[in-house]
From TrEMBL:
It comes from Asbolus verrucosus (Desert ironclad beetle). The keyword Nucleotide-binding does not apply. Pfam families: Glyco_hydro_31_2nd. The lineage of its organism: Eukaryota, Metazoa, Ecdysozoa, Arthropoda, Hexapoda. This is Glyco hydro 31 domain containing protein. The keyword Hydrolase applies. InterPro entries: GH, Glyco_hydro_31_AS, Glyco_hydro_31_TIM. Keywords: Glycoprotein, Glycosidase, Hydrolase, Signal. Residues 2-146 form the Glycoside hydrolase family 31 TIM barrel domain. Belongs to the glycosyl hydrolase 31 family. SUPFAM superfamilies: (Trans)glycosidases (SSF51445).
Amino acid sequence: KYFTWNSNTFSDPIGLQETIASTNRKLVTIIDPHIKAEPGYNVYDGALAADLFVKSADGSVFQGSCWPGTSSWMDFLNPAARDFYGSMYSYENFVNSTPTLAGIWNDMNEPSVFDNSLENTLPADSIHFGGVTNREIHNMYGYLHVK
């Protein structure tokens, strides 16, 4: 889950960062624009409550498969979604991160959907902010992910 630390792999993220800092090195983590659809996960819950995900053609929140399993995709055409997602980069919101976390690799901003066998991306008829279809905004998605 992005903007979190896997407690099985990183049981002491602050200690890890302190060890890295003691060697005069920095840490880079990775995130993707798909968010694990898991109630109780703060990023998912916050985006869902604020209506910040891409919608299916029927108006429901789009869900598909990607690295964390069932996921929803941030609707970066929506300025509120960009603000919300951008706020996750802060040390305050990325809990247990420190200034040793010097960078975040923004990966897979195509966006990739593993269970769309034809194109491996959001369906062309999925709906973004303002009623814009993915067919119209697809090539802007990656740019808006990092704007």
